[in-house]
Here is the input.
Amino acid sequence: MRRLRFRRDWLVDLGLFVFVVGFSLVLADGAVSGHERSPAQVAFDDITWLLSCPAVFLRRRWPVQLALALLVTGAFAHFVTAATMVALFTVAVHRPPRVTTWVGGLALAPLPVVIARQVAEPEVLSATRSLVYFVLIAASIGWGLFVRSRRQLVLSLREQAERAAAEARRQAREDIAREMHDVLAHRLSLLSVHAGALEFNPGAPPEEVRRAAGVIRDSAHQALEDLREVIQVLRAPDDAGRPQPVLADLELLAAESRTAGMRVDLRQRVADPGTAPPVAGRTAYRIVQEGLTNARKHAPDAPVTVTVSGGPGDGLTVEVRNPALGGSPTAVVPGAGQGLIGLSERASLAGGRLQHGLAREDFHLTAWLPWPG
Here is the structure.
């Protein structure tokens, strides 16, 4: 990248050098016509022209010094106009507006005198040429300011795009983290509970052991499948093809928990769960899933009541309630402590709200989600 920029800068400088030479040669006759020049003046013009052309290669390092030197030289020489235009353009592009204002003011300072002379003696050709000179100088500064503002705009848009991309990556990471927590915590808590039951009750009847082993196998298999789906989402550029839970899937979630030994009372009071908005339905599913997981970890023997109600225009209300203590956990199920935080973020992103806490001896988890009418 650095070599490419160096090569591009040299090509630009070479193009400006060709412009200065060509501009001076094309307008040489017009610049000196009507002037009586001594041999010394001719020699001075030639020398300043020969020096001003390669001087454009110094414009990036010393733009202000070069512009001032050419402005002073231009008061006595005829062929440095093009080099002066390039130097002033560079000042306007690469230096702060305050510096450009001072240099531009110095360059245009003689303009009132030239205008007064043109008004007093309109037939004088030199005054007209001077006006053209100042027009070229002003155009060079204006073009430089335009290029500078355009570069700043592009840089600002690029920075905004980079910040937006960084924010999108951060949001994607948070979404994936919530998804992995919600999905895997539920499966692994089932596996942990049944494995703990086998550990603390090794003399259980063979049928009960077989059933617990089957639940462990199914939970582990499903956890691996869920993890594989999440990894596929990470690898794929989009989320196409991955099924997302909806409100109607709460029946399956409750049945799965009952199979694991939980006492779940699902009160589905939505007339047609299939018509619920996808975002609200998916968020409600994750809230119930996390509520069941927490109940399984902290009160495995306690009954859990899940109530879902609402409809179009009223919103969707989800409540998960269970006793704060319900027996002794058969196994210590570790947690990251991020489940309820993640649920609050999910509800907020969906346009709803979530509350949780103790009410008497029960732990309740309540959420409201929008359902447009």
